[in-house]
């Protein structure tokens, strides 16, 4: 018994040492990435030469659409059911043998839905431990941010300003390096993705199907044909000086403004033109709010003498074309730096971003223990501390 305990302690120490030393002995090295933080089961294989070797994804839209949003228990059991074969598919597409060809296993550790994270993390840990491969627990939002360094012809150099807009987060950060971020702003209530999803539900829009689909994408599609000036709603965080000068964001008031508008004008939500105009007014106001706050962030960086190389925008909502074009004008015309967004299918959750974050972290020796737990709430600013 005592011998057994000693052996375990030895293993633990070994893994702790390993996390510090982790020599990169092979070039290029290959990472298998697993993403299960929300509703899509994504797996991919990426190497340190910035090649996406294969990708597989199982979407859950059909499962959640009848409920109007992601149902955590259903999402969890779907990951449980599909993850093994999504892993298998990624390996088959790459024509790779996991024991022979994969050097590192990376898996989303947080933030996200607890049971969903637990599923992917258990699988990743079990694979890594059984195969004696290094394990990397990835921060989902860092993975969104770093994707831009994979998808450009040459990696975007640090430091860059990044706006991460997803279903769970709205973050304005300065990315100084891998594992090193300064948070300038975050939402004080709903995320922008939640706002898109809620307005989409309010307008009873059917979800767009397939990769890059869902309620937010449906709202974008309808908004394209509407008149953004048809109704006036207040731009969030502009009421008083303190809120106007803060780099934080807010989206719950905008949702309420749209609901109030519908009530006060007795608008008919079965009228397609009314829906288009409301969607368009919502989207225009949300974009104005984003650009207002990014302006402040640009100015903050200037005051601190941070020479930014780019504005990187990523996360599911960054697949939105209107948001991209407004932010492109802001970055290029006003601040003379490029706007860099991953292609839309790599803005929404996927395994590639996790595998690539694994590459970036492994390269600088950041490896985790096999005993790590999931972190459903995990501020990105705690990375590196
Ligand atoms: O990053 P992501 O795939 O998952 C999370 O990490 O949350 O982001 C999902 C969010 C959802 O709210 C979805 O409706 C929204 O991104 N989204 C969009 C678009 N595509 C996805 N919102 C606006 N326009 C889009 N084209
Ligand atoms: Zn995401």
UniProtKB/TrEMBL annotation:
Molecular function as annotated in GO: metal ion binding; tRNA N(6)-L-threonylcarbamoyladenine synthase activity
Enzyme kind, highest EC tier: transferase
GO term, biological process aspect, one: mitochondrial tRNA threonylcarbamoyladenosine modification
Superkingdom assignment: Eukaryota
Pfam families (UniProt xref): TsaD
Gene3D superfamilies in UniProt: 3.30.420.40
GO cellular component: mitochondrion
Entry keyword annotation includes Mitochondrion: yes
InterPro entries membership: ATPase_NBD, Gcp-like_dom, KAE1/TsaD, Peptidase_M22_CS, TsaD
Entry's cofactor comment: Binds 1 divalent metal cation per subunit.
EC number(s) on file: 2.3.1.234
The protein's role, per its UniProt record: Required for the formation of a threonylcarbamoyl group on adenosine at position 37 (t(6)A37) in mitochondrial tRNAs that read codons beginning with adenine. Probably involved in the transfer of the threonylcarbamoyl moiety of threonylcarbamoyl-AMP (TC-AMP) to the N6 group of A37. Involved in mitochondrial genome maintenance.
NCBIfam families: gcp_kae1, T6A_TsaD_YgjD
Subunit structure: Homodimer.
Listed name of the protein: N(6)-L-threonylcarbamoyladenine synthase
Organism per entry: Funneliformis caledonium
């Amino acid at each position: 018994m005592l011998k057994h305990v000693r052996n375990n302690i030895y293993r633990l120490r070994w893994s702790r040492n390993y996390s510090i030393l982790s020599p990169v002995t092979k070039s290029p090295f290959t990472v298998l990435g697993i993403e299960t933080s929300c509703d899509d089961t994504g797996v991919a294989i990426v190497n340190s030469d910035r090649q996406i070797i294969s990708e597989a994804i199982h979407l859950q839209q059909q499962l959640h659409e009848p409920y109007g949003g992601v149902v955590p228990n259903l999402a969890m059991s779907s990951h449980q059911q599909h993850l093994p074969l999504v892993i298998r598919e990624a390996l088959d597409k790459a024509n790779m043998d996991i024991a022979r060809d994969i050097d590192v296993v990376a898996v989303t550790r947080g933030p996200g839905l607890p049971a969903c994270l637990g599923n992917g993390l258990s699988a990743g840990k079990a694979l890594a431990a059984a195969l004696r491969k290094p394990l990397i627990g990835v921060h989902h939002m860092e993975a969104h941010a770093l994707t831009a360094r994979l998808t450009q012809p040459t990696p975007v150099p640090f430091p860059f300003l990044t706006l991460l807009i997803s279903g769970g987060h709205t973050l304005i950060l300065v990315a100084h390096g891998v594992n090193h971020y300064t948070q300038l702003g975050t939402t004080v209530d709903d995320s922008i993705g939640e706002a898109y999803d809620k307005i989409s539900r309010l307008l009873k829009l059917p979800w767009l199907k397939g990769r890059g689909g869902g309620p937010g994408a449906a709202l974008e599609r309808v908004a394209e044909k509407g008149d953004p000036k048809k109704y006036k709603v207040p731009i969030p965080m502009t009421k008083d000086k303190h809120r106007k000068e803060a780099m934080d964001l807010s989206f719950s008031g905008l949702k309420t403004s749209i609901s109030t508008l519908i009530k006060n004008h007795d608008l008919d939500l079965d009228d397609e033109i009314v829906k288009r105009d409301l969607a368009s007014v919502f989207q225009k106001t949300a974009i104005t709010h984003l650009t207002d706050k990014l302006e402040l962030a640009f100015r903050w960086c200037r005051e601190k003498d941070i020479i930014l190389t780019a504005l990187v925008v990523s996360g599911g909502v960054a697949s939105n074309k209107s948001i991209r074009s407004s932010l492109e004008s802001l970055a290029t015309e006003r601040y003379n730096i490029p706007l860099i967004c991953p292609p839309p299918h790599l803005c929404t959750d996927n395994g590639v971003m996790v595998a690539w974050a694994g590459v970036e972290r492994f390269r600088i020796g950041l490896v985790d223990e096999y005993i790590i737990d999931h972190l459903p709430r995990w501020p990105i600013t705690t990375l590196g501390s």
